[in-house]
Design a protein that fits this description.
about 425 residues, alpha/beta, eight-stranded mixed β-sheet, six-stranded parallel β-sheet, 15 helices, 14 strands, about 15% strand
Length: about 425
């Protein structure tokens, strides 16, 4: 499939002059507005920006688990329209706030409920957008494409079953891993467009797809919304004042505190920097939060602060409050996942500290743009790097400016929306 260059728009016409199908889409994703964290934030931003470009989008999603501005997710209506996007919530059991079993039940029940909703409501859509979270959601896209002749675009956020294997949840030689791998190959090969969010991920996905389908793969990095995330000077930042950060050098990690994030070395670094004007701030929730809190309590660290997810309207303030932002990923996850929080950080003009593989997508970005530095996942090295940046404010400023420039050039929501618009337009036109 030949995909137009990012930025092309308009309604395509066939050689005979007939209009192409209407720009109507179904979007299937477990997390969506008002659950503005991780995939939920990215899918909401993409859908609303595509709506501005003329797409009619209906979203099937689950009830929010956390991270909502409105509070209790149970109070969110089953159907609403948000910035031109129609949102339909299907019933689920379990919760993403619980343990592995509860999360698995929630994800599986969402896939089954979405399948039932699609069977009952034969919507007139020209195509579908599906993500790899939850993992087997792509099976619905494959089935619909066969039964109703509707193409689908799949966005690869995490590669399965590789992700489960790298976490140690699944043995690579187990029957489940083998069946899962075959299912993944089927889903990817059946997609009209496969979007990968990093160059390291591209290599892995190519190995899972037949060579004849490689021309359907498109690399579109994730983004931050340039309308909402921008630098806020320290003296004007109410988030810093509210959390008493004025005289501290703030090292911030914001986002999901998940198993794939090697955050423990930050606590080790905090122990080594105790008594110096450095504060380690963790903003978010996730499976590793209790462990990190226990480590900080064990060493009685007064330079570590834990905060819950912050409302979306405070995102720019929160990210700009940091003097140095951390993005990390266990080495075994390179190519399997991409820590997209990095784009919000550079949008706010904050330097990055990457605790990840230098050859990963974000590692390459840091080296190419000069927007930060890469360190090994070891407390002493992290502490040494932080001391160096505390002593070199001009270097920090140059990193922040380089990151902001790279963001405006390559990683805005507008740029991503144009690329998706081009790929989707080509897809529903049958090209």
């Amino acid at each position: 499939m030949a995909v137009p260059e990012a930025g092309s728009a308009g309604t395509p016409r066939d050689p005979g002059g007939a209009s192409a199908p209407r720009k109507t889409l179904l979007l299937l994703c477990e997390h969506f507005y008002p659950e503005m964290i991780s995939t939920g934030m990215h899918m909401t931003e993409l859908a609303t920006r595509l709506a501005e470009l003329g797409w009619e989008i209906t979203v099937y999603t689950a009830k929010p688990s956390w991270g909502t501005d409105e509070g209790d997710g149970r109070a969110v209506p089953k159907e609403l329209v948000h910035e031109g996007v129609r949102i339909l919530r299907v019933p689920t059991i379990g919760s993403q706030r619980g343990g592995l079993v509860s999360k698995t039940v929630a994800s599986v029940s969402f896939v089954l409920s979405a399948a039932w909703a699609l069977l009952r409501q034969r919507s007139d859509h020209a195509g579908m957008i599906i993500t790899t979270n939850p993992p087997f959601l792509g099976v619905l896209g494959w089935l619909v494409s066969r039964l109703r002749r509707r193409p689908y675009l799949i966005i690869v956020y995490d590669v399965f079953p590789d992700f489960a294997v790298s976490l140690g949840v699944l043995r690579a030689d187990s029957w489940l891993a083998k069946v899962w791998a075959r299912t993944t190959r089927l889903i990817l090969a059946g997609a009209a467009v496969t979007v990968v969010i990093g160059r390291d991920m591209l290599d892995l996905i190519k190995r899972k797809m037949p060579e004849r389908t490689h021309d359907r793969i498109v690399v579109i990095p994730n983004w931050s919304d340039e309308r909402h995330v921008h630098p806020i000077p320290r003296e004007e930042n109410t988030f810093r004042a509210e959390h008493h950060l004025q005289d501290r050098f703030v090292v911030q990690y914001a986002g999901r505190l998940g198993e794939k994030h090697n955050l423990e070395p930050l606590i080790d670094a905090a122990r080594l920097l105790e008594g110096e004007p450095v504060l380690f701030q963790f903003v978010g929730e996730g499976a590793k939060k209790p462990k990190l809190q226990a480590m900080a309590a064990e060493h009685r660290l007064r330079n570590v602060q834990f905060l819950p997810y912050q409302p979306m309207h405070r995102l720019a303030e929160m990210l700009s409050a940091a003097d140095l932002a951390v993005v990390c990923l266990e080495a075994g996850h390179t190519g399997i996942s991409v820590p997209s929080k990095a784009y919000g950080v550079i949008a706010g003009g904050t330097p990055l500290m990457g605790i990840l593989d230098p050859d990963s997508e974000i590692g390459q970005m840091i080296k190419e743009t000069g927007c930060g530095l890469l360190v090994e996942p070891e407390g002493r090295e992290i502490a040494r790097a932080i001391r160096g940046l505390v002593a070199e404010p001009e270097r920090r400023e140059a990193m922040g400016e380089a990151g902001r420039a790279a963001f405006l050039e390559k990683y805005t929501l507008s740029a991503a929306a144009r690329a998706y618009d081009a790929a989707l337009t080509s897809m529903i036109a049958g090209r």
